[in-house]
Amino acid sequence: MGNVIKNKKYYKLFMDLLFDIVGSIFYSVGIYTFAKMANFAPGGISGLALMINYIWKLPIGVTTLILNIPLILISYRVVGRSFLVKSARTMILCTVFLDLVFPHLPVYTGSPLLAGIYYGIFTGAGLALFYMRGSSSGGTDFLTMTIKALRPHLSLGFVTLAIDLVIITMGWFVFGNIDAILYGLISVIVTSIALDKIMYGMGATKLAIIITTKGQEVADHISKVYDRGSTAIKATGTYSKTDRDVLLCACSSSQAYIIKNAVHEIDPSSFIMLADTSEIYGEGFLTK
User: At what angle do helices 60-79 and 81-96 cross, to 10 degrees?
Assistant: First the structure.
């Protein structure tokens, strides 16, 4: 039993490091390869670090790490020790790649618009890998969580957007070009989309909620057509007082249309609702 627990611990540590390393590479590609030479500031601490690098030529990674120190001190009690330790490891790895590895690699010097888009894709991918393992690249994540804890009525999205807008707007004065704001906004939007798609879109599923008087027949037909099981709940219509079955059937987005048609083949009067779900854990779906 002790060996099993020990092996699980080492496996978890290995996966944490693997995700941190790959995520740090993606994160550094976004910042150093695409954003550095495009003269715009994306949101967050990385945006501040890029502006400081533009003015004083200070290394991006070390600058980001230094800017994170006061945020860590402010948010320590809110984010907790475990999250902070993991994030510290992630931030150190990002610093190594940003300052020691990527300065020796080519940077993109083409269209700032494309730079903003690809910044968003790579940075979003890197952040997704960090978040999947309960870590963070630091920066405004700490500040956002602290503000949310102190002012729980505020929207998390609003707080994040407000902080990013302030930093992006500063890029106008630093780079002397209003286009810096537009490219910065594009980069933040693409980052958000990439982050959501990787963390949730890949595992996006549907939950079919089927109300029918032929529950077992419908369930058998769904199983026959797409080898997908269902869960039946007995219910009574409040208007008709008729006994009905409520079937819950989890499926992929591509299966939803076929399952809807399969239900109507058995019971044309059935009532079907298709709900979006981010993730489903269990046999046939994601496993922890």
Answer: 170
Closest-CA residue to 151 (of 251, 102, 254, 78):
78
Helix (H) or strand (E) holding 31: none
| DSSP H helices in 60-178 | 60-79, 81-96, 112-132, 140-150, 156-175
The continuous run of DSSP H or E covering 12 comes out as helix 2-28
Q: Please spell the DSSP secondary structure of 262-286, one letter per residue.
A: HHHHH-TT-EEEEEEES--BSTTSB
The pLDDT averaged over each successive group of 10 residues in the chain (288 residues) is 71 92 97 95 93 95 94 81 88 96 95 96 93 85 75 69 90 93 94 81 76 91 78 87 89 75 88 81 59
- CA-based R_g, the chain, Å: 24
Place of tokens 């079907």: 272
| CA pseudo-torsion sign 86, 89, 95, 98 | negative
The SS3 call for residue 208 is: strand
**pTM confidence score:** 0.79
Residues 129 and 26: beta-carbon distance below 8 Å: yes
